[in-house]
Amino acid sequence: MFEPVTIKDIAKALGLSTSTVSRALRDTHEISAATKQIVLAYAKEINYQPNPIALSLKERRSKSIGVIVSEVANSYFSQAINGIESIAYDRGYHVILTQTHESYDREVINVQHLASRSVDGLLVSLSSQTNDISHLSYLHEKGLPIVFFDRVADEIETHKVIANNEKGAFEATSHLIKSGYKRIAHLTSSTQLSISIERLKGYEGALKANNITINPSYIKHCPHGGMIYEETENAIKELMALDEKPDAIFVAGDRLSTGCLSVFKNLKISVPKDMAIAGFSNSDVLDLFNPSLTSVRQPAFEIGQLATQMLLQLIEAKYPVEEFEKKILDTSLFVRNS
Amino acid sequence: MFEPVTIKDIAKALGLSTSTVSRALRDTHEISAATKQIVLAYAKEINYQPNPIALSLKERRSKSIGVIVSEVANSYFSQAINGIESIAYDRGYHVILTQTHESYDREVINVQHLASRSVDGLLVSLSSQTNDISHLSYLHEKGLPIVFFDRVADEIETHKVIANNEKGAFEATSHLIKSGYKRIAHLTSSTQLSISIERLKGYEGALKANNITINPSYIKHCPHGGMIYEETENAIKELMALDEKPDAIFVAGDRLSTGCLSVFKNLKISVPKDMAIAGFSNSDVLDLFNPSLTSVRQPAFEIGQLATQMLLQLIEAKYPVEEFEKKILDTSLFVRNS
DNA sequence: TTGTAAGCGTTATCAT
DNA sequence: ATGATAACGCTTACAA
Question: What Gene Ontology terms describe what this protein does at the molecular function level (chains A, B) (predicted)?
């Protein structure tokens, strides 16, 4: 079974040396047109395919990039991965995909697994549990190109690509305020996540801009970002148990938004009928049909593309890069239309 | 920058030979406990990481599997990929992801790119454009382990994992019939796709079982499976232009189902108000909120897991496998609840 | 128990 | 223009 053809086989069959064959196969000038033709013809005939692993060993690069996300089955990430793959494909890179499921331990393992030189660079969106980023900074200092997207680590000096979370949150919250809501709660994920911090800032900014006092009991954290139903349910139950129930919620995450909607769908406790929800969500299906969500859409595909371009730039840079960029892409607000 | 530590470095530093170091690092018994400790301690100190590429070259395996799907940003596939990744992770394999975007050419390129010995096996769901599978059968004959999932090629003798498409289609169509619909159209993707054929069979079976004549003009193909809005729109317009308009549609695909719903949402032409739609869809968000779709849900995660288990079994088999399995997992029907 | 050497597939360097 | 050789990092006979 599976006996791959090597340069050696071609050399033997044609009575040439491996170096000659190698030269013929690439576009070196130090070879006669005649032998070149013979080699190429024979290589084609027996369908020779170069062994990328041997090449990787020699050139100390694998032509592949590692991607670390929390969940593939999340519209935002699957769209981002689509963007990542599109650029990687064009540039001849493989995409190696890993998930953290929001677990710090798993993130560390994945990073190390990928990084032990089987990957030329890393595209990272941090897990919600991640506080300590030494596993990444260690590699970064060693020279492994890393680009963050979405959930970034400010401590590490490298390229970053994010959505304008603060502005998106500001707009969503402002939209709720303009629509007449006054007691706006904020449902968000883990406290330390960059996206949570930015979105919280936008939420608070909008309240301040409208002279609404920030009510700390209106701000609820779900560290697992909507992955655990009960967590979201409890947060909402607590909000609904308040003396002054909120009349709207700004939700700061994709899974959290749908989680929130399903809690409201199932909830037995009394919920204001005209409760409004605005939240980050990249599910194209959701805002096509769900009438009760105003969604903040992130340009996930573009973020993935841009992050990949930047990573490949770092990987292929001849000299160490000194200037790092933080690209911030605008979100768009999809307002419910009925 | 990035000067990786090798076994050679350790050997030099400790005044040992590379083979001794290599032995110490693994669990060979042909080594003294003393040197072993010294080597392990030093390796840890300088944070030695073995180079997987060198290992791959030596052992002729990369501990990675290639995945070929049409689109990541499709609930079905992202869930399947989640399952794939979960098993691959447990078994220490990397997942290399590629997309065909339903293009045959791209499928061929991806297959070749992955297969040229950088991957130990392939998990394939065919593109809707694929007729000719020689690019796969060639590799399969050469001994590359391949497992198909979802969209399979019956011509190739290997493991396959699919949902019970025929039964799912039968149930969905039957459900429409039981609900009182009589003129049930069928919106499906490319003619040659295994899933299309199976779902068509289930649709026709349900009609026959209920003594309803099959109306060929009720069966519409969208080769791009809902990826091109106009294609879906035209199909539906044609259905709606028929003298005897259908009163229900059974839709045979994930993107096609949402595409169909959005067409109805946008369509200006007259559409029966009580038009019922039942279709394959794996969007958990969709059937949570959309009242107008009865959805056939595939166990995508389990399909991904099972396919990966089977692939790894093939990869790690000591002897060529002769008996191949076709696993068929049941779908479930989510009926609209209002 | 440890070291030497060959080999995995390729390319670069140096001869010829 | 072509061939021999070493090297990429690792493992494994085989020798010592």
Answer: DNA binding
Compute the distance between CA of residue B66 and CA of residue B84 in angstroms, rounded to an integer: 10
Residues B149, B125 contacting (CB under 8 angstroms): yes
Rounding to the nearest 10 degrees, give the CA dihedral for residues A293, A294, A298, A299: 100
> Which residue in A3, A49, A72 is closest to B82 by CB distance?
A72
Q: Quick check: A72 and B62 CB within 8 A?
A: no
- Residues B89-127 have pLDDT tens digits of 999 999 999 999 999 999 999 999 998 878 999 999 999
The C-alpha atoms of residue B259 and residue B233 are separated, in whole angstroms, by 8
Evaluate if pTM is beyond 0.90: yes
Please spell the DSSP secondary structure of B199-222, one letter per residue. Answer: HHHHHHHHHHHTTPPP-GGGEEE-
Q: Given CB atoms, is A146 within the 8 Å cutoff of chain B?
A: no
Strands A184-188 and A248-251: parallel
**Residue lying closest to nucleotide C13, CA to C1':** A19
Q: How far apart are alpha carbons A137 and B254 in whole angstroms?
A: 41
**Cβ-Cβ contacts under 8 Å for B88 (sequence gap 6 or more):** B65, B94, B95, B308, B312
In chain B, positions 32-61 with C-beta closer than 7 Å to nucleic chain C are 32, 34-36, 54, 57-58, 60
- Kindly determine whether the C-beta of residue B23 is less than 7 Å away from any atom of nucleic acid strand D: yes
